[in-house]
User: What shape does this take?
Amino acid sequence: MGEMPHLSRRSFVFGSVAVASGVAFGQFAQAQQAVSSAATTNPLAAGLGPHSVTFNPWVEISPERITLIAQHADKGQGVGSIQPLLIAEELDLEPDQFEIRFAGPSPAYFNTGFAHELAPFMAADQSPEAEKARAAALEWLRKAGLQMTGGSSTIPDTYDKLRMAGAVTRETLKAAAAKRTGVAAADLRTEAGNVVLPDGTKIPYVALSADAAKITPIADVKLREPSQWRFIGKPMERLDIRSKVTGDMKFGIDRKMDGMVYAAVKLNPNKGQPIRSYDASKAQSMPGVKKILKISNGIAVIATNSWYAMQAAERVDCTWEPSKYPAEQAEHWNVVASSFAPQFLAKEWRHDGDIDTGLKDGTLVEAEYRAPYVGHQPLEPLNGIGIVTDTGMEIWAGHQTPQSVQYIAATAIGMKPEQVTFHNEWMGGSFGHRLEFENIRVLAEIANQLRGTPVKLVFSREQDFLQDIPRQIAMGRYRGSVKDGKIIAADFQVAATAPFKELLARMGAPSNDPDGQLAVGIWNVYYDIPNYRATSFEVQGLSPSTTWRSVGASANGFFTESFIDELIHAAGLDPLMARIQMCKIPIYRKLMETVGEMADWKGPLGSGKGRGVAFVESFGTSVAEIVEVTMTDFGIKIDKVWVAADVGKVVDPVNFENLVQGGVVWGLGHAMNCELTYAKGAVQQTNYHHHEAMRMYQCPVIEVRGLENDYTVRGIGEPPVPPAAPALANAIFAATGKRIREMPFNKFIDFV
Amino acid sequence: MFMLTVNGLKRQIDVVPEMPLLWVLRDELGITSPKYGCGIAQCGACTVQIDGVAVRSCQARMADVAGKAITTLEAVGNGKLHPVQEAWIEHQVPQCGYCQAGQIIQAISLLETIPQPTDEDINEVMSGNLCRCGTYERIRAAIHAAAEKMGGK
Ligand code: FES
Ligand code: FES
Assistant: This one.
């Protein structure tokens, strides 16, 4: 686009997609395509009962009930509610008129929401080339059929698609009613689960299911005008709130099955390595213990309840194969530090102007930043129920990639993925943890040794910590220069393990491309800096790492926005005003102006108080945050946070606010006091007292405003996280003059 | 064999004396609102009322609670919604919801001792209940709202 002539392009995360061909679909066309192409392979068709009908993979109507399918898994972010409500918006259903079911694995549920993230163009780029690349990425996604919840993509994926699914269903039900009554479809309307005839007679949708099954779904439908919306954009009650407040909600860990046994495990804390030998003599005779099994990387105790199993598992003495990565944490950092070398170059993502000349031309500023391994540790520990028979396996667990669950379980026990039936569960959090597979693989191995018996596996918190594949470890070496009150050069180099690439490899889809997540936060930076370079290096041979809420940007955003603050300081400018003036994208400038207004930003506060600002775009969503702190006798107190986020359209305003607040708490809490460190090949932190994050007494007031200036609808699950840590570090600098360049900050300063 | 009254019903339980109440409720009796989060009194997800007092059930041994009356989230409202639950719904507190049974029971206990709590009181009493989803601000607001509903008595 005109304003950003120098954008370089990053390579596709999923391998190369033919960018040149294809038409640039508008969003609407994309949605229509998704609905119609998915309909040809509708996975619901196979399981339909008598007189039932399905028009697309998201709606099923029987004479008894209407079931709406949630293809994105619910980890607490509220998509188990908003997905059916998007359908209900067009289908004219009330919230109590349908049941919700999570989707089973099927390519029909491919995630169109990744198209933007996969196309090598910045979020703000609306050029025809960018749109073409997104269309090509969409085509690739359709072919790949990847069903994944993640990347803050649920709303971008479903916003049009599910409304379309609702509209198709509505019009087809009207057609069925027209056929039955002889009244023209144009004279029918729908309301609260009924087709309504001109004389007011109501025919419930469920009474039309058998008739509707006999006609071809009406494809040519129109979506409603926003002025007609009943739910979207209005405060609504999440459909899962009541059951979570009464205790009725059943999470995966709450499921019970007739005849099931309970399993707990002790696994090699040297991640990825097998067990050598074990001695179970102490555990064997403990109460409740039925059996002790060897699995590839540890042992499993089978008992009459989870607690007996966990107690006994701890008492089994195991000898472990040592780790392949360095045993001690200091060595991990050494490896990272030595990875800024040509042989580890992942990619130079962007080079504008002439960086060498630019750096020489002004006053040089240099800094090194660090982001440690961090745990996910959702409050519901990993678990699952599985039963293996001679013909297949059935699994009940909460997971973000159903197809990978099939692949991992099948591979573990020598079956084919299609022999594995997977049922998703409501999850007690994930943050990226439930994109990984340790519980699934282990469950398959255990259940395979107990064919015919349902096995319920629950990880103890300690085992969950020890097996948690952490966020990437990362280091930033940043240089820049300022001249005449301006930033004239910025050279951002990041060395990190490759979280997304590693995850893909574990999913059975290895890629040779550099990890695009390592570009986020250094590449998509929108300040007018004439000489600019962003490079990433891929660290090899360390602990496995994976996606952690906001992934690459969680570390890179901290580095970049802290260093921009350092440069602004060196140039003698105001942190917020300078960012606004340097920002090349009008809607992002507006966003920063908004957060400034919310906080009534007027420059330094004095008397031990300080404010810091940060602005990061991740997953296409731009978020600006201001943090205010006070230096007290007991340490830093976080007083207040202001957040402005632009998502194009705020679909579910109450949940939007909740998610933003939660993202800020997540970002601040882990920056304050969390890291995972290795000793003797194992993580040293084994429960929450070692890895606490934020508690109530530290939680500031968090004021949130959602903006709708972006040209397309964006997600909000992750983007509030990246700006939180740099805004806090910048606030601490403003209050104390101390720059903190490494997380967690409590290694350098106390918090109240 | 131990006796326990859970949500008004007398139950017989055959487990070892040191089994934590949490696991008796969840795995032996199938009462699933108390959650396992940490097992070491760090998260509060397992909080239930024992003789009316909020207690971490992962720390209460079966032998020590035998004969007592246990109330879990399923029964705190006596068949209706407790005002704290109503406030939780109005403020749409939960995200994943896994911590919320513990949060609500802790909040009820707070309001029973301090009917009009300040933010400091809330910090004091609620900081043992971890919420990984970060719903603290909404919990705070819901507690103030519940205090109002309950008339500050
Ligand atoms: S499980 Fe009892 S406090 Fe965490
Ligand atoms: S709502 Fe998820 S842990 Fe509190």
Summary: The CA atoms of residues 325 and 543 of chain A lie 6 Å apart. Residues 154-181 of chain A form the longest helix (28 residues). DSSP finds 20 helices and 27 strands in chain A. Residues A 76, 379, 429; B 94-100, 131-133, 135 surround FE2/S2 (inorganic) cluster (ligand 2) (CB under 6 Å).
